[in-house]
Structure formats: structure tokens, C-alpha cells
Write the C-alpha cells for this entry.
Amino acid sequence: MGSRESSPATIFCFLLLFFLGGKCLASELEATQTAVLKVDASPQLARQIPDALFGIFFEEINHAGAGGIWAELVSNRGFEAGGPHTPSNIDPWSIIGDDSSIFVATDRTSCFSRNTVALRMEVLCDNCPAGGVGIYNPGFWGMNIEDGKIYNLVMYVKSLETVELTVSITSSDGLQNLASATIPVSGASNWTKLEQKLVAKGTNRTSRLQITTNNKGVVWFDQVSLMPLDTYKGHGFRTELISMMLDLKPRFLRFPGGCFVEGEWLRNAFRWRETIGPWEERPGHFGDVWHYWTDDGLGYYEFLQLSEDLGAAPIWVFNNGISHNDEVDTAAIAPFVKDVLDSLEFARGSAESTWGSVRAAMGHPEPFPVKYVAIGNEDCGKKFYRGNYLKFYNAIREAYPDIQMISNCDASSRPLDHPADLYDFHVYTDSKTLFSMKNTFDRSSRNGPKAFVSEYAVWRSDAGRGSLLASLAEAAFLTGLEKNSDVVWMASYAPLFVNNNDQTWNPDAIVFNSWQQYGTPSYWMQTLFRESSGAMIHPITITSSYSSSLAASAITWQDSENSFLRVKIVNFGSDAVSLTVSAAGLQARVNTVGSTATVLTSGNVMDENSFSNPNKVVPVKSQLLNAAEQMQVTLAPHSFTSFDLALAQSKLVAEM
Ligand code: AHR
């Protein structure tokens, strides 16, 4: 999915511009307000924006990972989700057959010492029903199976007698067969790993995996996995979702949470060590903040791999011995500090080091460049935060002097009482407040740690399920971060993903189900900031009686061939604005050829995108035929516009 570069609306606008000789943008609108926006692009006033200003925040929330970007189709693949006490709930697994033909229960006979629960299936029937009896897994609200695609089934099986198992992918009622294979299992007292490729002969978005047999006897199952073969770079990520991440050109990836890192209770917090190594051996865990089980196929290693695949700097948010409800006393925090140092050795150590060798064995001998860590999440007010923080800070500084450490305590309006390279800043609020918060960092001290605005969004009624209104306030807020990027070094939106079947947290930027996805207006708004990281920012002034409804910024940036002056402006009000844009101090002439305007707006400020109308509120790009050092444009009500003025290579060359 991309912005609607050649939609009918674009073509109409282009033709309109052509015939009207360059009158532009919402030209059919009656502007009731006027404004003048002046950019001073002289080099001596320009400042470089930090290279990693805009990135993304990925939290395992809303089934963003399990049942989301992690392409595993089986949910609860190791039968551990019901807990260690057997018999346990096998949900979402279910049984094919009745009480007289089959008896299924968990026991603790697995061959994997860290996840001992397995499934014992006793087939009671001599003459089983046609099609056999067995078990099925519906995945995460149904498996998306696509015609012609190959799916790799892996499972661990034990059977004392020789049996034949049929593995099939079927529709949710079991009636449509999409792929199947029969696998003979020789009788043995030990576990066997079975692997089978299944080629789909049809498409069904809500399929299930079945394992059935007609043979009387007992069979045990464990670690049953079904993965599509075509994942991003073969790394296990859902390609279409990764491509939406790539479209944001994120400069960093903050992971794996959020509150997910903390847990309601420490015993349920994210433990990196439990999420690495062979997937079969990972115990999985129940994330008690967002209330779901994860098999931890998407573990610490995979997050590092994802950062690399996105070309984004990894930002590892680790648990600092504090959850929502319990805390480790600073006097007893030493093993937690050691655990985090081990995680850093896992990422950065040589392939010969203790933990680096584990990483190498997983297929990545080269270190992952972890340069930032956040010491906890939203824990500043907790009793042992400062004590624990200092223990982590000192140990990491000593072992890895180059790692930048992020404190949970807000230093935007007063100095910190502890050392830090950056401090975390989260804001979820209504649209008017966020719009006005574009000036928040104007007043921050220019000394001391830099701000990492790692979660921002409009929420509650103004956000709907991703409204234009929210995106406009957020865009205004981001123009303020750009201007203050001498003290704000990094920023990322609220959680990136939501599986439509589990919207625990709202708002989010990308909505998906098993086979579809779309960006909310907030997602599209962020695409207009993707060129800002590392660009030059210029001072601007806005003169208008309407200026309290406007927010803007100006940068110069370059693609592989050209330089552009980009002026972004939010019209947060309900009036159209006749805007004069003038740029002084440019080092090159403005070229109309290659100059564009991109507008994010819609008929109603609460408009949203949806699966049925994913492109209702997306940026529309058109040629800017009147592009010049001074130009007149009209801003639509409730709109966010990005003008890209193409700059000729130099005034002299262009004039020759
Ligand atoms: O983004 C959702 C939650 O909001 C995060 O887990 C937490 O950091 C914040 O409170």
C-alpha cells in the first residue's frame, strides 16, 4: 500500500492546475482566513536534525507480535498456555471426535525441559468416523491460507505403536480441504521431530490446522508449528506488515514494550533469556498486562533481527526489577543487573563470548549494534526506581561506555536528580491539548539529558479508531519536536500495530487482521515526517489572526538526486486559509518541475480508514505548478499539507 499518487483525485488536481495556470490546492475552496508563512533558509540559521529523530515503537500489545508480525499460524503451539499444572486448558486447540472415540489431556512428558507440557491423545475407536479423530488449531482468529503458497509444518510426536497421522489445512468448519499429507509415525518410546511442507490448493482466510488419525492407540504431540515459507527475508516476519514499517523509514525500533516489559507482576514480565535459542525450547509466557499468552517465537533475538532488517537502531527497553505491582529492593537487584549485562553481551559480544556464541549459534555471528537502552518503562515514581536505575546505569556505563541510557523520569521542565543520556516522555491526551503541546520543549533546558518522546498520540473520543483530527494534532506536535530537535533526539508514536480482533489499546497506527492491513491517518501523517531525520531545519514565522490554528515547520532534505525545501503546515481549524509562503536565503532556485504538494485531509475531521475503505484518509500528492520562492496556496480546513519545493542545483547553474 502506498499514498495515492495517481488516484483520480490527483489526476483531477493536476489537470485543474494545468488549465488554471498553476492555481493550486483546494483552489475550489473559498478561503476565509489569510496567513503569511516566512521561511529563513539561510545556512547560518539552519540546524541539522538528529539522524534518528523519527522511529517506531513496537510493543507486544493487541496481538501485534503473536498473531501479528510474527508469521507463526499456530496459537499455543507448545500447549503451555494453560499453565504448568495438568490437566490444563488447551485453548485454542479443540477436539475432532466425541467422548467415545477420543480422550485428550495435557501431561508433563515433553522432551523439552523448559516447557514440559505436552498433549496426550488417546484414540478409543476401533472403527473411527470417516476422516478420523484428532485435534485442530484455529490459529489467531483463523489462519490466512493462500492458494499456491507453501506452509511448513513442524511437530514433535511420540507414539508407542506405529500410526498414520493426517495433517491438513481446512476451512474453519473442516469441510474444505486446502492441503493435506499423511505421515507414518513408527512406534518408539522417544520423541520424533516431523516436518512436512503443505501446498495450499485454495485460499481461505479463516483456516485451521488439523491432525487426525484412524488408528487406535496413544499419540503425544508437542511444539506444533505452521509457518508460511515466504516471510520477510526468511526471518519469520509477515511481509506486508513489514513493508508498512519500512514505508515509515524508521531510524530506530523501540521494543518490546511498554508495560509489556514490566508485567503486572514480575513473574510475568518479559525475560529475554527465555525468548532466545531454538524456538521449540522457549517456554513462552503470559503477558499479564495485555492478557494474552505468547509462545515467544518473536523473542529478543528476533527483535534485534527486525531492527537490522528495518535499518533501524535497536532500543532495548529492559525490566529494571519493577512491575506494576511488585518491585525488587535495590539491595537485591544485582542478579537483575547481571541479567541485563548478559543481554548486552548476547547482542554485542563477539561470537566467542559466552552469550555472543548463543547469538552466533542462532545464525548471527556479527554483533547487533545496540547503542540505546531504556532502564524500565514509566517507573519513575516507583519506590526502588532511582536505586535500581543507578545500579543498572553504573554497570552498563562501565561495561559499555558508548551505550546511551534512557531514564523514565521526565526532565522536560526540571532537571533530573540522576545521570542519564536521555529521558523518556510519554503523552496521550485530547487533540487540542496535543496541538498546543507543540511548544512544550521550547521551554526545556538546553543542558542535560535529551528527550526521547517514545509514545505520543491523541486518544479517547478525539481519536475514534484513528481519526483525521488525531493525526492533525499529532502532526502539529511533531513540527514542535522538529523545531526543538536540539533537545528532542528521538520520537515515536503510540503502539504501532493492532490486530483488529484484539483492540486492547487504542490508538494504534496500523490495523490488521490475518490477511488485510491499513494505516490510520496517524500512520499516514508520519510518512510526511520520514525525511526529517538528519535533514536541516530552518526558522519560520507565521503571521495571521488565525495563527492559533496553524502549526508549521520547514526543512531542506535530499533524495538520491535532488534537494527540496519542505514546508509542512497543519490547518487545525475549520476555515480554509489563503496562505502566502515565502522563502528567503535559499542557496538554489526553486524549480516548478519536481515540486509537489501532498495533502492529508478529508470531508469530516472524524473520518477514519477501515478495511472496507482503507484509503479514505491518505495523503494525496500533486504537482505544484506555481512553486516559487514566494507562492500563494490555499489550505483546506482540517488539513495537513507538505510542500516540497524542488531546488535547482545552484542558482548559477540553473540560470545558465
Ligand atoms: O502504549 C501502551 C502503553 O501506554 C504502554 O505500554 C505504556 O508505556 C503506556 O502507558
About this structure: Residues 98 and 313 are 53 Å apart (CA to CA). Residues 1-26, 650-656 have pLDDT under 50 and may be disordered.
